[in-house]
Amino acid sequence: MPETSTPDTAEAADTVGGDRHQLYIGGTWVDPHSTAIVEVFSPATGARVGSAPDADATDVDAAVRAARASFDSGVWSSVPPAERADVLDRAAALIEERSAEIISLVSAEMGAPPAAIATLQQLPGTGVLRAYAQAARDYAWVEYRDGLFGTTRITREPVGVVGAITAWNVPLFLICNKFGAALAAGCSIVLKPAPETPLTGNYLAELFAEAGVPDGVISVVPGGADTGKALVEHPGVDKITFTGSTAAGKAIGAACAHSLKRCSLELGGKSAAIVLDDVDIAANGYMITFLGLFNTGQACVAQTRILVPRSRHDEIVEAMVAAARTMTVGLPDDPSAQLGPVISERQRQRIEGYIEAGKAAGATAVLDGGRPDGLDGGYFLTPTIFTGVTNDMAIAQEEIFGPVLSVIAYDDVDEAIAIANDSDYGLAGTVWTADVERGIAISEKIRTGTFGINFYAIDPGSPFGGFKNSGIGRECGPEGLEAFLEHKSTMLPAGYQVSQDS
Ligand code: NAD
Question: What is the pTM assigned to this prediction?
Answer without folding.
Answer: 0.96
